[in-house]
Amino acid sequence: MIDPELAGFLTQAHPTFLKIRLLLGRDPGGAWNEHQALKAEIKFAIAVEATNLINLCRTFAKEHPAIPVAALRDALWLDRPHTMPIVAQTQPDLAPAWLRAFRLAAEGEAAALEESDRRRADDLLH
Question: Residue 35: which pLDDT band, with cuts at 50, 70 and 90?
């Protein structure tokens, strides 16, 4: 069962996710060099919405310190599994631990994951 406060947060985050999905729907597709201006505009707007989401997460985490940051992150990924990968591209703090571990391992820094998680949790709360 989901924490009622966490469920309320997901409801509060819904408009941001809706904006991201609408922006993704505006992408004309095609090769990377087709419609460059429109694609850049969409990418920038998605980054702005992802920033709004991380700010919303930080506010929620400060107001509800009893709810672990990992639970907040997991709830976002369970609720919006198709949108969160797009968000995580510009807000890696919202990526799940396995994805962050994969990225760190790819960079040869897997040992730093635990310390990185602690710092990210502290950064999210402050």
Answer: confident
